[in-house]
Predict the structure.
Amino acid sequence: MIPTPDFSHLTDKDKLYVYDPAEDTFLFLDALEQDAEDLKSQKPLICLEIGSGSGCVSAFIGSILGSTNTLYLCTDINNRASDCTHRTGLCNKIPLDPITCDLARPLLKRLQHSVDIILFNPPYVPTESEEVSFAQSGRSISGSWAGGINGMEVTNRLLGDIETLLSERGKFYLVTLDGNNIPEIRERMFRAFRLQCQIVAQRRAGIENLHILRFSRVNE
């Protein structure tokens, strides 16, 4: 078993502004550990976590891959999250490279078809559109969970960029819940980009039924 990254350095003040690892985070770690051998055999050169928050997930995949030349890019719209991600990398001896930006928009041209692992635990809770707009523009902790209509407003903005970012053998992991309409996500990504999807982990957490989806290119 791969140990959970140490995030004991996160302070109570940090947790007022940055998402504290919770059930969805730990399900994400379980899914990645399940794929550990396959991920290591892939010898990824670039890993990109979008919305890294505490940096726990990227630190974990760094532990899976071990001593490699992998570049760990971690984006977040929240400056405090970028700082927490940096400190989590230092604490766990994983060279995380945080970038404060909106999703992966500034990186699209430079990383075109180059990212081997994409990780995204989005704000997936259904809310009013005004709430997600306020959360994103305010760069506050509510931006880590307020997802707008069907919990998909932020996720939808990223899904159109995945094919541009993903390498030939790349994998994209996405956290979802039932209310996000998983069948529609799977059908859309296959129809638009020929990306096949598998549900690699699922767990009930309170009233939410969480799923981890893994996308990859269809081998033709």
